[in-house]
Design brief:
This protein folds into two domains: 161 residues, Rossmann fold; 69 residues, no CATH class. It is 33% helix and 26% strand. By secondary structure, it is an alpha/beta fold. GO terms for molecular function: ATP binding; ATP hydrolysis activity; branched-chain amino acid transmembrane transporter activity. Belongs to the ABC transporter superfamily.
């Protein structure tokens, strides 16, 4: 893969908050439809990376998406390019119904003619949500709220789905369900960039990955290569 043909190409990226650098000289790329993960410790800068792609963090360098430069672009313009971001912590609108939460995901494409079909695809993927369409999202379990957050993002029909710690705080059974969901989404042709502390989950679903330490990418390779790497096995897989 070359950055010239990549769906997402990040080069020489520095980013941080209030003048404090968090990411340093990041280089990362991925093709259309590819499933890539970023693994690392809790303070490695994984969430900052996704927030920077979404235009929520000041940055220097280049983030190219389908040939469009994202650095300096207002964050509210990013979804319209085909990038959907599921932040850590789910962030549903608790007093709104499940249906209202999911439908909000299509706000930036509200004129699209296929919104009903998009909604139906989400409900087919998450049948539990169909049973709870009129229920307030804040009354759902953590796993169900994560389904709402992912379903809301999929209403955009994104070219790229950014997933930030989707398994955090969830029961193992729900994590297994999400594992299957991510693979289903990937098979539709949607590219996924997943950041996870759950390294086992990340490497089981992604085709390749990057290791982020203290804001710098220190390793990259296929998921099989990273799983077999002694440093990764010791630091992140507990082996």
């Amino acid at each position: 893969m070359t950055t010239a043909t990549a769906l997402l190409a990040i080069r020489n990226l520095d980013a941080g908050y209030d003048g404090v650098a968090v990411l340093h000289d990041i280089a990362l790329s991925m093709d259309a439809g590819e499933f890539v993960c970023v693994i690392g410790a809790n303070t490695a800068g994984k969430s900052t990376l996704l927030r920077t792609i979404s235009g929520l963090v000041a940055a220097k360098g280049s983030i190219s998406f389908q040939g469009e430069e994202l650095v300096g672009r207002p964050s509210h313009r990013i979804p319209g390019l085909g990038i959907a971001h599921v932040p850590e912590g789910r962030h549903v609108f608790p007093e709104m119904s499940v249906d209202e939460n999911v439908t909000l995901g299509a706000y930036s494409v509200r004129g699209a003619s296929d919104l009903a079909q998009r909604r139906e695809r989400v409900l087919e993927m998450f049948p539990r949500l169909r049973e709870r369409l009129t229920q307030a999202a804040g009354t759902l379990s953590g796993g169900e709220q994560q389904m709402v957050a992912i379903g809301r993002a999929l209403m955009l029909s994104p070219r790229l789905l950014l997933l930030d710690e989707p398994s955090h705080g969830l029961a193992p059974k729900v994590v297994d369900e999400l594992h299957d969901t991510f693979l289903t989404v990937s098979r539709t042709g949607t590219a996924i960039l997943l950041v996870e502390q759950n390294t086992t989950l990340a490497l089981s679903v992604a085709s390749r990955g990057y290791v982020l330490e203290s804001g710098r990418i220190v390793l990259a390779g296929t998921s099989a290569e990273l799983s077999d790497n002694d440093a990764v096995r010791s630091a992140y897989l507990g082996l």
